[in-house]
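Appendix B, Record 12. Input sequence as logged:
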Amino acid sequence: MSTQPPACVLAISGSDPSGGAGLQADLKVIARTGAYGAAAVTAVTVQNSLGVSRVDPVAPDLVAEQVRAVLTGMGVAAVKTGMMGCGEVAEAVAETLAGFTGEVVCDPVLRATSGADLSRDPDLAATRALIAAATVVTPNRGELALLAGSEITNGQEAAAAADRLFIEFPRLAAVVIKGGHFNEDATVCDRLMLRDEHGAQEAALHQRPRLPSSPHGTGCALAAALAGFLAQDWGMVPAFTRAASLLDELLGRTFTPRPGGAAYMRFT
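Logged structural output:
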């Protein structure tokens, strides 16, 4: 039996009682990467395969205490942040992560797949503070447009928006642009943009067939998988490739809990 402890990833996000997204999905995916998942709860939600009906953020000081407890006691190699619930929680998490030197993968969750609002941060100032503490950010098209302050309809505009994020956030090393919300017909393309002296450069892309319906929690899964592989020193490009391939595997194992509900991924 090996006595070498696994790499630890701290997931900081909201709770999804249906288990398809949020912390529950993060921990399942992190385990699939071979890392150990710890968790800090930012919000309690009421949701199921039909949608989100309630979001109650946890007290910001309690969230910060959870994060500090894990960072000081678990030897954390990487952090993955997801839904914060409100600006005050995002600010508290950003402050608590200020001295952390490992990889921080920020999934800037603002809305659920169903369209429900998951963040009370209308001017995005607190979300920007959280991204400032990150080394990687993983927006979808809508989130990237909000953060960059411009309309995005194609890959060229997305690359220009990623370049603006690199200028605004000096700690960012990578932007992963999730392709599910782009109009790419039968194909979804995730893009890894890396910083270099010429600005944002596409370092890798991953294409997959578009499914008839978008399963619950795909964004959470990709970001959590990326954090899990980065925690194990895979390097940015190999970690992105492995994370995207793991998402492919999960998407190939979807099910629908009830007629008319959203599709879910099987994590085991």
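The chain has a mean pLDDT of 90.
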